[in-house]
Every structure is written in structure tokens, then in C-alpha cells.
Amino acid sequence: MQWSSATERAIFASMQTDDSSEQLGAAEQALDNLRRAERDLLDVFQHHMPNRAFGCQHLYLMGIARRSLAQARAFRSCIKDLNWLVAAALLRLQLDTVLRLYALYWVADPEDFAARVFAGEQVDRMKAADGEQMSDRYLREKIKSQNAWVDSVYKNTSGLIHFSSRHMHAAIRLKDERTGMIEGFIGPTDPNHVIEDFAETIEAFFHCTAIICVACDDWFERFHTIQ
């Protein structure tokens, strides 16, 4: 199963920023867009879920939405606290949610697939309709044809999920450019930064959330009965 052209246009439209708040900085505007995407995702389920047939694929989408909204709330809290290390890790998790959501599009039997995931099987050990195993690499390759930025976000944030050199680098900072002196730094926040420094991270998180919203809406629109 593939995206329809209407879905692609909707995803593109959902990722556009609102020019009505030009007085806001890029980061604040992206946060506003993220809050809107969160509300839109709730609206999708409030519109589509009542009085319809219900199966495992719908529960799969509910799990996607539950995770997405929980991560979005935590992400905004981290941004407010200038806690970039955890905010960036949450971005990676939100992108993972995008990848797992679209796995539902690429399997032969979505209802059976969702039931197997509900029973405890891992998505990356299951196969798509084309016979390929749905590894992260496979899912990224499928998605990046429409969203080229997915690869760079995935690669730049993956080192923040497990302990890595990224965390070691975050524990030091340059104190004197002339001498190259550095100092150690530990603590939960990035006090030398302001929210605007995180604009690109926030924008990427918004894009992930908007894609989730549009994809869920598209799924509900195209599947009025259990397949």
C-alpha cells in the first residue's frame, strides 16, 4: 500500500509554518505549530473513533497517538528548561513513531500486523508486503523519498538514545577561544543557550508530529471498516 497523492499534499501542507505570527522568533513559532499539531491529532481521533468498527489496527493508531502526545508534552517541557540533551533524544523517539506508523501502510494485512504487534512481536523483525524486513533502514528509505530530512535527523539524534560520545562532549565547553581552555560542565540544562538556539530541533519535532497527525487522519479516511 502506498501514500495517495492527496496524502502527500496534506503532509506537505501540514509542515508549513503560520506566517500570521511574524513577531515570534523561529523557535517560539515552531512551538506554536507543535501545540497546534498536538491539538489536531486529538481532533483526528475525536472525529473518527466514535461509532465505528474497531480492530487492532485502530488500537495500533491509538498507541501511536498516545506515545506521540506524551513525547510532545515532555519535549516542550525540555525546551522550556533548555534541556537539549533530552529534547533531542525525544526527537529521535518521535521520528521512531513516524517510522512505526508508516509500517502499517507497507504490510500485506494491517489488521494481522497490528494484532501481532499487540501480542508482543517487534516491528523490525516483521516483513513488509514486498518481503523485506522492516528494519529502521528499510523504513527510512521508504519515507525519505517524500521527506529527505528524515535521514539526517535520524543519524544526528541516534547517538543520544544510548550513552555515547555526544554525552561526553556535552560535559565540556570552551572557556577561552584564544588559549583553547575548556571546562567541565555537568547539570540538567544548557545555561549558555536560549530557546532560539533550539529552533531547528523544535521545527523537526513539529514536522514529525504533523506527519503523524496527517497519516492517522488519512488511515481513518481510507479504512472505514476492518480490512
Query: How far do the termini sit from each other?
Result: 13 Å
Task: Label the structural class.
Answer: mainly alpha
Name the poorly predicted regions: 1-22
Provide the helix percentage: 55-70%
Beta content comes to under 5%
Biggest β-sheet: strands ordered side by side in the sheet: 1-2
The backbone outline, from C-alpha atoms, is globular
Q: Report the oligomer.
A: single chain
The ordered string of helix (H) and strand (E) elements is HHHHHHHHEEH
How does the major sheet shape up?
2 strands, antiparallel
Overall mean confidence score, pLDDT: 88
Instruction: Give me the number of helical elements.
Output: 9
Provide the gyration radius in Å: 19 Å
Number of strands: 2
Total individual domains: 1
List the defining traits of the structure above.
mainly alpha; disordered N terminus; 9 helices; 227 residues; single chain
Summarize the structure.
This protein has 227 residues and is mainly alpha-helical. It has nine helices and two strands. It has one domain.
Reconstruct the topology from this structure:
Layout: H1 5-14, H2 26-48, H3 56-80, H4 84-103, H5 110-118, H6 136-143, H7 150-158, H8 165-169, E1 172-176, E2 181-184, H9 199-222
Helix pairs in contact: 1-9, 2-3, 2-9, 3-4, 3-5, 3-9, 4-6, 4-7, 4-9
Written overview of the protein:
- The chain has 9 helices and 2 strands; from the N terminus they run ααααααααββα.
- The longest helix has 25 residues, at 56-80.
- It is globular.
- The model is unreliable at 1-22 (pLDDT under 50).
- The protein has one domain (5-12, 26-222).
- It has 227 residues and is mainly alpha-helical.
